[in-house]
Specification:
The complex is a heterodimer of chains A (483) and B (603). By secondary structure, chain A is mainly beta. Helices cover 3% and strands 48% of the residues of chain A. Chain A has 2 domains: 388 residues, Maltoporin, Chain A; 35 residues, no CATH class. In chain B, a hairpin with a 7-residue loop joins β7 and β8.
């Protein structure tokens, strides 16, 4: 990489601040005219409380309005991704047919080559346009502060190792594809509610709202469907969809409608035949039995197909935030920090594997003891579908859960030993003992181990839980001392 | 008030502009670019090997194409734990195996396209270039053939992919595809080497191209295209194979034992997929004899024994047909007995299965659990003879050429080309008195050897003798002596020999008296000769009989299912078949990323 950068600052009348920056970045990952990306930015700040009309407001210690705009770039692609490539070896997990390209002729091994990359001579910088408006206010000599930020970022020419159709002979190709938008608001409120000689309490609270959206995709695509490869048989079942005008990742699947009950069938002898007006569940009508999982038939064709799949959840939180408190009393200091997230959904794939008997020979969660059986017909958990488990191989609202949580993230208590005491030791200059705990407690309705889970995370596949390690609660004791 | 401009800072981290250009222009060091490849014969061969490589994947002839994708009315999947699979005809378009087969084939087509487009750059001998190009052209057409016969209107890909923005591929009508396939193969026939240039069977040679051309034309004459003018083409190409010096191996089982022993019989086996070992690791993902074959542990060579037969197919072989007890095993392995094998009783049919490839004959070591080095036949000479007869009958009725072709296959099948006789069965002349079963030893009988059987007692005397092998080469009946066991003894067992030298196993008069009867006889002969070789479903579909045959099979299983249990899953595939299963579903992975493709009807 090579870069040029230049910046100019100008302050006018001690209250109008102008900044302008220009940078040019060149990357060897792009070729020809696309090597260089140009990223200007500019900002303006208005120190309102320095204005004549505001100077006399005694309680206002700070008032600053900030406006800025800038472009930043991203060149996160493999070093030689622009070039098409042939190789004698390939370890690309997305194209397993390229591994071991040799063959035997007459029992003699012959080396083979495969085409490991398509290249893309037109690859160029991904650029983000950011717009920001902020207001900082301070009262009572900064005893109370308020910050408000509004932002809008548009990213275009997204660099993506996009999925290619199998007919092309390639599994992926790097392209600049589409554009997305993130906009939102952050509010920070801080203050020192109590300040006495011995005791003080300083608190700060912040909350953030973010929304993202896809503005455009390429090649006339209206949507990208992505799968999470958490099991061989799931790699072709997309659980996520990205549509133009909608968030970057949304959960995609069927709507769960309970289980089939005896009144959905006509009983003849010992055989249960599905009633004419009741939809099947993705398998042959003759195979549906009481206790099997039921999905909603959205297009009314009495069968569950790809057309009955729809958006069934969103991994993004409506808001997130934190609440930090610092207390001090004489030699003691206490820090208590909460964080939360509200409105994010999670695909709990553990329950697909361990609460549905879809796969032969696997143990199940204790919750599965309450499944539908002829003796327990009020249960909504699908019964053992001996030989008919195929209908369970789909994402549905049954295993999408609300991952909202409030977490007591940190509690840290410390005590600074008084200097008079330490003087007596003649060696130790200062000492502080402390105990601190992380992840002490989480309030959540999520049934999995950790509502902040995101296995095999990527921009297109967030919020997935399968076989993840739980988050550890840690407690630490320590001493800081200087000699 | 004016303030001087506060500060202007310029930070430059660059070198001068001319070295800047080179600085940002490194070349890749760990792979080649296509424009720098294909320089010489070695690189052309490497590219060609890459095209062949696709034949050996698990998703193609390593397993799926003879196991999951050839489920028809001659066998059932004997893996009771399976609930949803391509093989059970209850799969969805997102099925992994379905997607893998489709993806592997198009990968192969792209590799072929790259070679075809770049081969002229190489500095090499013109003759060798022509042969390599011919092989690539043929393989590209062959992969399209598998795709078109299994999926119907598949995209036709005659150029390599050059840009990541090529994502829309339209369905191409199968008529157009077949015409492309035939014209490409005819071109390739003139370019590739004559068959006996090589002493192994995995290369594409003239005989291979002619034989596959016969198969392609036979498919075009059948469903769904039904272009009956194609039958003449079948005869033309089959006759070219006939005149190239090909001969049937006198011993049917030797054809398949060769594949396990890494031996080649290029006169009978025109084209096989090679699987092998190199430096102690497996080359190509072959599961021949592992997923099918006789269930076995790792000492013999691990096998799931995953394909079993039912009564109707077993009984369609006549009692003298030596193919029956080779294609379908009549014994199972047991370490509890001397010899390691126990014969099945006559009523144990569902226990038996696809045994054409037996790991007990596999020579390459070590024997892995998931893969084997047993080769798989794509085209055999007997197939060509039967195609010749089938097409000839459709054009000209029962002609001598057609009858001779079928009789050649039947005679070999009944051992008429081998010296000596085999032990057909054993009669219990005297059951003797036994409380524990003895072992039967066959000896004498002229130059013969290899006969073996299991002796079973019931009610204090010998009640059954179940054949394990008929042996071969007997010029007179061998003597059976009984050793071991417990009891007074005194049993007399008499072997019944085959009468291959004197019996006539040719087509009967009834089978020849009309084109309709002859057609039925030829179709039956195909099922007996080519079972489990990935061709039964293909044949049923082109005869327009797939759905009706599978439903008839479902009825048969309902009536013949053993009441002792353990085989209830046998009916799954036949029961799940519906009309749309004549074609496979186009994979969801394709539908999701290809803007122009349309799914097959019924899916």
């Amino acid at each position: 990489m090579a870069a040029f950068i230049s910046r100019a600052n100008y302050k006018l009348l001690d209250r109008y601040i102008f900044t302008a920056t220009f940078r040019a970045d060149g990357s060897s990952r792009f070729i020809g005219g696309n090597k260089w990306g140009y990223f200007p930015s500019a900002g303006f700040a208005w120190q309102i409380n320095n204005e004549p009309f505001a100077k006399d407001i005694k309680y206002l210690s700070n008032a600053k309005l900030r406006l800025s705009w800038g472009k930043t770039g991203n060149n996160g692609v493999p070093n030689f991704g622009v070039y098409p490539s042939i190789s004698y070896v390939s370890n690309d997990p997305t194209n397993p047919f390229n591994s071991n390209p040799g063959y035997m002729f007459g029992n003699v091994y012959s080396k083979g080559v495969v085409y490991t990359g398509l290249g893309n001579p037109n690859l160029k910088w991904e650029t983000t346009d950011s717009y920001n408006v902020g207001l900082d206010l301070g009262f009572f000599k900064e005893r109370l502060t308020l910050g408000l930020d509004l932002y809008n970022k548009e990213t275009y020419d997204l660099l993506l190792n996009a999925v290619m159709p199998p007919v092309s002979g390639y599994s992926r190709a790097i392209k600049n594809i589409g554009s997305t938008q993130n906009n939102g608001m952050e509010i920070t409120l801080g203050g020192t509610p109590i300040q006495t000689r011995d005791f003080s309490w300083n608190a700060s609270f912040n909350i953030a709202f973010n929304r993202n959206k896809i503005l455009g995709l390429s090649e006339n695509q209206l949507m990208i469907a992505t799968a999470q490869n958490w099991g061989e048989d799931w790699k072709n079942i997309p659980g996520y969809v990205a549509k133009i005008g909608s968030p970057i990742a949304q959960f995609y699947g069927l709507i769960y409608d309970g289980v089939y009950g005896y009144d959905d069938f006509i009983k003849v002898g010992n055989t249960y035949t599905l009633k004419e007006n009741v939809s099947a569940h993705g398998g042959a009508r003759g195979n549906v039995q009481p206790g099997d999982i039921k999905y909603r038939d959205l297009d009314g064709d009495l069968q569950i197909t790809e057309n009955d799949k729809t958006v069934i959840g969103s991994p993004y939180a409506k808001h997130t935030g934190g609440f930090n408190n610092n207390f001090s009393y004489k030699g003691f200091d206490l820090n208590v920090f909460f964080q939360w997230s509200y409105g994010n959904d999670i695909i709990n794939a553990n329950r697909i594997m361990f609460e549905s008997s879809y796969k032969y020979g696997y143990n199940q969660f204790a919750t599965y003891a309450d499944r539908w059986t002829p003796e327990n017909t009020t249960s909504n958990i699908p019964g053992v579908a001996a030989g008919r488990g195929g209908s369970l191989k789909a994402y549905s609202t049954r295993t999408i859960e609300d991952g909202s949580f409030l977490r007591l993230k940190t509690v840290a208590l410390g005590y600074k030993l008084p200097t008079e005491l330490l003087k007596r030791t003649k060696v130790i200059k200062s000492a502080r003992v402390y105990v601190s705990a992380q992840n002490l407690y989480t309030w959540t309705n999520y049934s999995g181990y950790d509502p902040e889970v995101s296995v095999r995370n990527s921009a297109l596949t967030p919020g997935f839980d399968y076989s993840a390690y739980p988050r550890a609660r840690t407690i630490t004791f320590g001493i800081n001392s200087t000699f | 008030m004016k303030r001087i401009l506060y500060s202007i800072a310029i930070a430059a981290m660059a070198l001068t502009s001319s070295s800047c250009k080179k600085f940002l222009d490194p070349s890749p060091t760990d792979f080649n670019a296509p424009k720098d490849f294909f320089r010489n014969e070695a690189e052309v061969n490497a590219a060609l090997t890459g095209v062949y490589d696709i034949l050996g994947k698990s998703a193609t002839y390593g397993r799926y194409m003879f196991f999951e994708m050839d489920v028809a009315d001659d066998s059932f999947i004997h893996l009771s734990g399976w609930t949803q699979d391509l093989a059970l005809y209850n799969y969805s378009p997102s099925d992994t195996k379905l997607t893998d087969n489709w993806t592997a084939l198009y990968n192969g087509i792209n590799r072929a396209n790259m070679l075809i487009e770049n081969i002229d750059k190489a500095v090499m001998d013109e003759n060798k270039r022509k042969i390599a190009l011919g092989e690539a052209i043929f393989l590209r057409a062959y992969y399209h053939f598998i795709l078109t016969s299994n999926w119907g209107n598949v995209p036709l890909k005659t150029k390599s992919t050059t840009s990541g923005f090529e994502v829309n591929y339209k369905n191409s009508p199968y008529k157009v595809n077949y015409e492309f396939i035939v014209s490409e193969m005819e071109k390739a026939a003139d370019m590739v080497a004559p068959h006996f240039t090589y002493n192994y069977g995995s290369r594409v040679t003239k005989s291979v191209v002619w034989g596959i051309l016969a198969r392609v034309n036979l498919k075009m004459a059948g469903a769904p295209l039904r272009d009956v003018s194609r039958y003449a083409e079948v005869v033309k190409w089959a006759k070219k194979v006939q005149q190239a010096g090909h001969v049937l191996n006198p011993d049917f089982k030797r054809v398949f034992i060769n594949m396990s022993e890494d031996k080649y019989d290029t006169k009978e086996v025109l084209w096989e997929v090679e699987f092998g070992k190199r430096n102690g690791t497996q080359v190509e993902e072959g599961a021949v004899g592992v997923i099918n074959g006789i269930g076995a542990n790792e000492k013999i060579g691990f096998s799931y024994g995953g394909k079993h037969v039912t009564n109707a197919f077993f009984n369609s072989f006549d009692a003298d047909d030596l193919r029956r007890d080779w294609s379908i095993n009549n014994y199972y392995y047991s370490e509890a007995v001397e010899g390691g094998k126990i014969g099945y009783a006559p009523n144990q049919i569902y226990n038996r299965g696809d045994a054409k490839w037996r790991r007990e004959y596999e020579t390459a070591a070590p024997k892995f659990n998931g893969t084997s080095s047993i080769n798989f036949p794509i085209l055999r000479y007997s197939d060509v003879l039967l195609m010749l007869a089938e097409a000839e009958n459709e054009i000209n009725g029962v002609t001598q050429d057609a009858v001779d072709a079928v009789n050649e296959v039947k005679r070999r099948a009944h051992g008429k080309l081998m010296a000596g006789e085999v032990v057909k069965s054993v009669t219990i002349t005297n059951g003797g008195a036994y409380t524990k079963a003895p072992t039967a030893i066959f000896s004498g009988g002229g130059g013969g050897f290899g006969a073996a059987a299991t002796v079973v007692i019931s009610g204090g005397k010998i009640s059954g003798v179940y054949m394990i092998s008929g042996g071969s080469g007997y010029t007179s009946a061998p003597t059976i002596s009984l050793v071991g066991g417990e009891g007074a003894g005194g049993a007399v067992l008499t072997p019944v020999m085959s009468q291959n030298a004197t019996n006539n196993y040719d087509l009967t008069a009834a089978e020849k008296d009309s084109p309709e009867n002859f057609r039925t006889a030829i179709r039956k002969e195909r099922s007996l000769e080519l079972c489990f070789e990935g061709l039964r479903r293909f044949d049923l579909v082109r005869w327009g009989q797939f759905y009706s045959a599978m439903k008839a099979y479902e009825n048969e299983i309902k009536t013949t299912l053993p009441s002792t249990g353990g085989y209830d899953h046998a009916i799954k595939s036949a029961r799940n078949v519906s009309e749309k299963d004549t074609l496979f579903a186009i994979p969801a992975a394709e539908l999701n990323s290809n803007g122009d493709i349309i799914q097959n009807k019924g899916w």
